[in-house]
Amino acid sequence: MKNIFILIFIVITSLNASEIKIAVAANVSYAIDDLIKEFNITYPDTEVKVTLGSSGKLTAQIFYGAPYGLFMSANMKYPNKLYENKIAISKPIVYAQGSLAMLSNKNIDISQGIKFLKNRKIKRITVANPKTAPYGKAAFEAFKNAKILKDIKKKLIYGESISQTVSYTVTATDIGVIAKSSLYSSRMSRFKEGVNWTEIDSKLYTPINQGIVMLKDSKEVKDFYNFILSEKAKKIFKQYGYLEL
Fold this sequence. Notes:
Blueprint: H1 2-16, E1 18-25, H2 29-42, E2 46-53, H3 55-63, E3 70-72, H4 77-84, E4 93-98, E5 100-103, E6 125-128, H5 134-145, H6 149-152, E7 156-159, H7 162-171, E8 175-179, E9 197-199, E10 208-214, H8 219-228, H9 231-239
Parallel strand pairs: 1-2, 1-3, 6-7, 6-8
Antiparallel strand pairs: 3-10, 4-10, 5-8, 5-9
Helix pairs in contact: 2-9
C-alpha cells in the first residue's frame, strides 16, 4: 500500500513539473547554477536544462531548429540576428555586462595593470580571437586605448573561445586576458586577486553587453526570462564579476 502511495506521488509530481531548455554562452557557465537555484526557490516545479557553448555555435543550432526556449548570448550581435530573422520572439535586452581581467599562474607583479603586458619578461599573452569572440574584441580595444597594442602584438596567442583562452592562459602562456567571470569557477580558486589576477580598467573598453531573447512563448520561458532581468539575478551576476547595470 505504501508503495502505491509513493507511485501516485511520483506520477502527480511529474505531471505538475515542467521543463525548459536554454542555450547559454560559455562565460555564464560559472553563474548559471546559482541563477537556476535562485529561480527554483520561486518556481520549484520548473526544471531548467542548460546547453553551454559559444554564442555563434548556439545561434547556428537555433537557426537549424534546436528546441531551445531561451538564449543568453555573450553579445548583442547574435540575439539581434535571431530577432531580425523572426526566430526570436522578444527584442534583445542586455541582461549582464561582461568585464575583462588579466590572469597569470606565474610569480609576476600583476598589480601594475595592463601596461605590464609590455614587460620583457612577458613573452606570450593569450587573448580571445577578436574576430569571433566579444571578449577578444574588447581586449583589443583596451590594448589600443592603453596604447600598448603595437608593443605586444607579436606576443599574442589566440584562443577561439573564452574557455580555450583560459585553458591556454593557465597551461601555455605567461599571462592572459580573460573574462573576469571565468575566475569564479572552483578550479580557479587557487588564483588570488592582486597576486595572480587583476581586473582591467573598464574605461579602456566598451562594456560587453550580453543579450537575452525568448525563442518560445510559454509561461515557463517567460518566468525564467523575467527572473534573469530581475534584481535578484543582477546581484548574482555581480558576485560573478559582471559589471553592475
